[in-house]
Amino acid sequence: MANTKIFILLPDGVGLRNFAFTDFYKKGKSEGMDLVFLNNTPFDLAKMGFDEIRLKQNRLSFFSEVLKSARKEIELNCNIRKSKDIVYDSYRFPFSYTTIKSSVKSSIIRFLIQLFDSEKGLKTVRNLIEKKERKTNFYSESYELLKIQKPALVFCTNQRISLAIAPLLAAQDLEIPTATFIFSWDNLPKGTMVVETDYYFVWSSHMKKELLYYYPYITENQIVITGTPQFENHFQLDNIVDRETFFNQNGLDIHKEYICYSGDDITTSPYDPHYLSDLIKAVRILNKKGWHLGIIFRRCPVDFSSRFNTILEANSDIVTAIIPKWDKVGEGWNTILPTKEDSILQLNIITHTELVVNLGSSMVFDYVAHKKPCAYMNYNPGRKDHNWSVEKIYNYVHFRNMPTDAVVWLNSPDEIADKIEMILRDEAQEVVGNAQEWFEKINQHPAEESSKRIWAGIAKICKKEIC
Question: Looking at the predicted structure, is the pLDDT value of residue 325 above 60?
């Protein structure tokens, strides 16, 4: 009898959005797969109706953290030398010297970078990471578990969490196939590859090319193009509630049309409150011209700061904040749990708004899935920050394949009102078409069939049809 046991390794909570709250789990079950989450998070998946094996929470050792950080820095250096492009410097975080421990850590990382700063040295660091992880208790525990359970495949839900290394190495040492999913559209240029598996599931042909470019030790036959399940909820139309119900549930004015302002995290957009304030001013101008507009503010789910409070309180006649339905069970961003309810909430916010405004967010793809436009903030606020600028954001590698007019560019506060009005008059259809073209390049289409394609890829691996 064929082995149908598939272990879904969940090294952190963010993978739940793609692999628990979409059709992925249901489709696997319908195809006769025996799905078990290897759960290394603080979240109780059994209460949510999922089969799980709880792994013991582990902290990465000091030396493993150092090696991981050195690896990223060396990768970025190699990318600069290979591409002759200093954009990769913008993916670095400054070294910390605020405490004795952080100073020691930063000093060791910088020493390792000097010692191993080459493609050959990078390989040495990768080998040191594996050697170190094989000596951990977590590796031994994972090895014994997998030896008993004998799954057909261990599938890791993202490539960037170091705690996934040990169980994946244990599987490989037991000759159990392993795979990982590249989590986000911007991950590969950043040097976020931490795990090394037998197979890599990617969003698109474009991402496949990126993977081969940045990681030349990976071969074409190790890569499976599937798309990402994160957009599947936009095609589950049974989850849409009618306008009147949605407006009543969220305290919205039934006589208004709404614009969504989608917030970023504080690192990506430290001046997000400034941009929201500018949008509010533009809406007030338009309302004086006879429009009846409001703003729905959806903050970044991992942003629990108070930085918007003053603006929201002072403009409650214009802005309604709808809080994302994520569960916070720890202090780190990766201990914040997405929920199925939030996927439904996001779907309904998009359905009942005319457009989205933000700074460089992938929400452009969520909205174009509904044939609705996105406007990107594209100017620097009055305040100066030498470590941040809007030019830096839009120079990131993942924006370089973007058609020129896939969004409406808001290049100054003064033009926001006119451009929003242009969108509301339905004069942005060319922009929507360009955004759709971009979406199809970034993510394999049909977008609603990504889970189906992932399971087809898993089945081929289990049948040894991909080698």
Answer: yes
